[in-house]
Amino acid sequence: MIVIAHLSDVHIGATPESAGRAGSVMRYLDALPYDLDAVLVTGDIADHGRAEEYAEAGKLLTSRHPVLIGPGNHDVREEFRRSLLGEQRPSAKPINQVYRSDRAVYAMCDSSIPGQDDGHLDEETLAWLDGVLAGTDLPVFVAFHHPPVLLHSPPVDSIRLHRHEPLEALLAARPNVAAVLVGHAHMGVATTFAGHPLLVAPGVVSTALLPWEGGISFETCLDYDLPPSIAFHVLDDAGRVTTYHRVIMP
Ligand SMILES: [Fe+2]
Ligand SMILES: [Fe+2]
C-alpha cells in the first residue's frame, strides 16, 4: 500500500493567512505516525510569482517526507526555478520533474502558459511525460495544475487545461498510470480522464464554492473562511486508488 498526500494552491502572499495555512498543513503531515511515499503540491505556490513569496514557500513546503512541487498559473517559471529548484541561470522552459520512490513514479508536468490563467501541455512536455511512462513498469502518478475536464464550475472551467486531446490519447495508451492529480480548482473532486482516476486537490488558501452554492463567477466563487483541506491518495496492491479528504484547522 502506498499513501501520498496531495495539496494544492497555497498561494503564498495572497492573504495574510496564506503562510499560516501552508505551515499548518505541513506540520500536520510531519506529525503523522507514518512515512508517506510522497507529498505532491500541484501548483499556485506564489500568488504573484515574487522572489520573497518563493523564499517563504521554500521554507514552508519542506517535510520529513519527499516533497515534489509543481507550478501553476500564478507561478513564474524563472523565479520558481531560481528559488525552489536552486537554478543559477533559470530558463523559461516548462518545469517538468520526476520523482521515483522504490514503489511508484511521480511525474510533475508544467501545464502553465506564461501570462495566462488557462493551461495546456505543450509538445515538449507531452513527449517528456510519454518517456517517463514508457520507462517504467511501476505505477505512475501524473500530476499538473489545470484540470483537463469540465468541473461544472463556470469560472474554473473557463481557465481549465485546453487542447486536452493529445494528453488524453497519450494517457489512454498507458495502463501504468495510477491516477492523474491536479489542482487549480480549489475544490476536492474525483472523476475520470482517459480511463484513469482524475483527482482534484482541495485548496489550501481558499475553497471554491460550487454553482449550486452560489459560486457562479470569479467574484462569488472563492471562500477564504473555510479551512484548508488536503487529499490523501492510497494505491493498494490491487491497483485501486482510494482518496480521502482531510480538513486541517489552521
Ligand atoms: Fe489557485
Ligand atoms: Fe491556478
UniProtKB/TrEMBL annotation:
Keyword Protein transport in record: no
Domain Calcineurin-like phosphoesterase: 3-187
InterPro entries: Calcineurin-like_PHP, CNP_phosphodiesterase-III, Metallo-depent_PP-like
Keywords attached to this entry: Hydrolase, Iron, Metal-binding
Family the entry assigns: Belongs to the cyclic nucleotide phosphodiesterase class-III family.
PANTHER family: CYCLIC NUCLEOTIDE PHOSPHODIESTERASE CBUA0032-RELATED, PHOSPHOHYDROLASE
Protein name stated in the entry: Metallophosphoesterase
Organism, as annotated: Nonomuraea rosea
